[in-house]
Amino acid sequence: MQNLKTLSREIKEFLGERPDIVVTNHQNPDGDAVGSATALSGVLMQLGFRVKMIMPNDYSANLKWMSLSEEVLFYDQSEMEADQIISNANLLIHLDYNHPARSGKMERVIRESSAKKLMIDHHQQPDDFCDWRYSDTSMSSTCEMVWHFLAALEWTDLVTKDLAEALYAGIATDTGNFRFSATSPLTHRVAAQLLEKGVESQKVASRIYDSNTLSRFQLLGRMLNQMELVPELHAAIMHLSQSDLDECGFVKGDTEGFVNYGLSLQEVEVAVIILPRDDRFKMSFRSKTSFDVNQFARNYFSGGGHKNAAGGISDQNLSDTIAHLKESLHKHLDEITAYAQNP
Ligand code: 5GP
Ligand code: MN
């Protein structure tokens, strides 16, 4: 990690050149991605910068309340316009991802851009594609890091209640509501400072979580019925097929968090959900204690993420994907068993 003080001093100096700024994040943006992008952009806009937020694709409806949400440009809907804006930008800010491939179809234009690049991210094994890299895998969330970044720049006074709510939402969602192990005393201190900005935590939680749809519940029912528990692997394997999605009237965001149901089973150390996406399968991996799903996803499913939460893809059909998954887990049987027995 570059020292945050040095990095922020260099950024401040570069901002003196009044660059055109583009703020981006990863494909299928989650609460942390949207919260960090809108909040940081909001502060930069108040300082008079020209800032565009460009995300690879749309995000779920329960995050649309965030301030500046309506100003986001989605790459898959406005590719030509977005290409032009990115090509003309002088500074690209990459939030909540650490490899250009995580931005999907935006990868090419990002790689080709001659703009200065700043990464703020908390995922494992960052790629070296940025001029400035604020990467810290011990951090709870990119939203927490944006707060530290703004503090280093002495700009936290510019965080309004609305922007604070976006940051708070990102921290809350990425930590499973302050539950996951990366939730540190510092995370709580940042959350406290956001609350002091007027964040109404109950309202934020309600906007995010009291947003269930009937289709989500129907899909959840199917998923739970189809869930396979593999006791010797301490694994819960879940899936939904394209016809499950079609028959239940799937809308974006409906399966968010489903993987955690498997993880919450007694004696399960690793939970996996397999979901159709764009003619492939998207996989989500979670572990309860020490099994490193980031490394597992990298090794077997072209993915990555964090130690306890990662994602990947499979180009095989569903039954081959499940077979490959079980085989791969079997290779780590001793490790998984040891973790499950000594959490
Ligand atoms: P989710 O399972 O919720 O999609 O993702 C869990 C974590 O892994 C998130 O932090 C997400 O950014 C990361 N992640 C998800 N899919 C991928 C992937 O295909 N590659 C990498 N490197 N990270 C991923
Ligand atoms: Mn995150």
Verbal overview:
By secondary structure, the protein is of the alpha/beta class. It folds into two domains: 206 residues, Alpha-Beta Complex (inorganic pyrophosphatase (n-terminal core)), CATH 3.90.1640; 128 residues, Diaminopimelate Epimerase, Chain A, domain 1 (Roll), CATH 3.10.310.30. Helix content is 43%, strand content 17%. The protein has 14 helices and twelve strands. The strands form two sheets. Strands 3-2-1-4-5-6 form a six-stranded parallel β-sheet, with helices on both faces. A hairpin with a 3-residue loop joins strand 11 and strand 12. Helix 5 packs across helix 6 and helix 6 crosses helix 8. The mean pLDDT is 97. The protein binds guanosine-5'-monophosphate (5GP) and manganese (II) ion (MN). Manganese (II) ion (MN) binds next to loops.
